[in-house]
Amino acid sequence: MLLEVGCLQMTPSQTNGWMYPPTGCVHLVRELANVVIHILWQLKLLVIATNWARPLATSRENEDIGSTIEASVAFNLSCGTLTPNAEGQEIENKTQTHVELTDIIITIGMASILYIMNSLPSFDDLPPVKGMPQGCAWGIFDKDDKKDLLGTLNLLTPEVVKDAVGENTLPNTISWPIGSIKIPGFFRKSLCHNVIKLEDPASRSHYGFDDEVEFNTQASSQWDSFAHFMHLPTGLAYNGAKPTIDAFQTPKSAQNLPTLDHWHQRGCVTGRGVLIDFKSYAQNHGISYDQFSGFRIGTTELEAVAAWQGLTFRAGDILLIRFGVTETLGQMTGAEQGVAMSSGKMCGLEGSKEMARWLWDRHFSAVASDNMAVEAMPPIIDGVEQPTHELVLHQWCLSLLGIPLGELWDLKALAHACRASGQYSFLLTSSPLNFPGAVASPPNALAIL
């Protein structure tokens, strides 16, 4: 029997096995197929795809969207499992009722999906959370009655990471040096580096050095934890967390806050990075913009740059956007930096619900840029400029959706390497500082092409 399934997505469930999404786009060629799929959806049966999930995920950036894959499988309707039938023969089971479907042609309609056919709810289909706006992802990644602290980093599964590794060998550091901004904005502390001379107390002979470093974690390249910015109407952070100074200083309470130290329990960040080089795109297309004027780009521009670069997104991608801000700041004096950083105006992504929806629906695991806030400043709501603390994407991404944000990254060398190779995807690794209650941290990030 021939069955064509368009836009079919599958993902590891948070309990066990794989799940058919209720929102899959399904075209039934045969009436029996219609009955089978209807039953599967109604019962929300699990799919065990250990042996055949990887062959399905053959889509690559340069291959046609909608590539087809054939598989011979058997549906077990009573227990809700699907098992591979490599020989094309009926699988014997005397206690279960089987419907065997052979020569299944599954049309993969999303080239962004590799080893995981992601079935996270779309932004508009996220289940409602009492007291929160539509589009809140609290509880989506919870497991075993334990509140999730990692958000969309859960998309960086072993399969996604293995594919990202590939044969990339040339590293590019994308962390701006700490202390690059001499006078940080918003009254943040600049770098203080104290070098200590080590001497033997008895002989007074000198034998080495120690050093001490003090700085604000927001003053250069950084990851923001989900505890950095809260949902203003409720005062709650991601997944309903309630960060307070006392909570950060109480070990038991701090363990339940969505801070960066929890990233180390999953091996930090390793995955497929993708670069949207808006600066080069703008130069190529005659688009001029002032980096310190509040210039902003929307989803249409992001899609246009990706198409210009020949870049296809995949589930779990770590999205980087280059505006050229750190490059410009690096050419300024300390005084000039202070004026620029404190102006309250900077180019970036459009801060809107539509942008949040786009980021979630493309299932990025994290987003980072070379500007100060990822989103443009000042925030504009209903056409009216708002104070900085009203940042829109910070509330959506950090507080409601659990999408990590990285800021002030150094993307110039990476952009040049991508342009030279014609490849805008790469292996990205990042290991933030590992200390309890980390609200933010230098990313210590590498892009390996």
Keywords summarizing the entry:
449 residues; alpha+beta; Glucose Oxidase, domain 1; 2 domains; nine-stranded mixed β-sheet; four-stranded mixed β-sheet; 12 helices; 21% helix; disordered N terminus; Putative cyclase; KFase_sf; arylformamidase activity; KFase/CYL
* Average residue pLDDT: 78
CATH topology of the largest domain: Glucose Oxidase, domain 1
| Unreliably modeled segments | 1-117
- With helices defined by DSSP (H or I, 4 residues minimum), what is the helix count? 12
Strand content: 15-25%
Class by helix and strand content? alpha+beta
Q: Tell me, what is the CATH class of the largest domain?
A: Alpha Beta
Rg computed from alpha carbons, rounded to a whole number of angstroms: 24 Å
The tally of beta strands, per DSSP, is 22
Rounded to the nearest angstrom, the distance between the terminal CA atoms is 44 Å
For the biggest β-sheet, the strand order reads: 8-22-20-12-14-16-19-11-21
Question: What coarse outline follows from CA principal-axis ratios?
Answer: globular
3D architecture notes:
By secondary structure, the chain is an alpha+beta fold. It folds into 2 domains: 4-119, no CATH class; 151-182 and 216-448, Putative cyclase (Glucose Oxidase, domain 1, 3-Layer(bba) Sandwich), CATH 3.50.30. The protein is 21% helix and 21% strand. A 9-stranded mixed β-sheet has the order 8-22-20-12-14-16-19-11-21, sandwiched between helices. The longest helix is centred in the N-terminal third of the chain and has 13 residues, at 31-43. The two termini are 44 Å apart. The model is unreliable at 1-117 (pLDDT under 50).
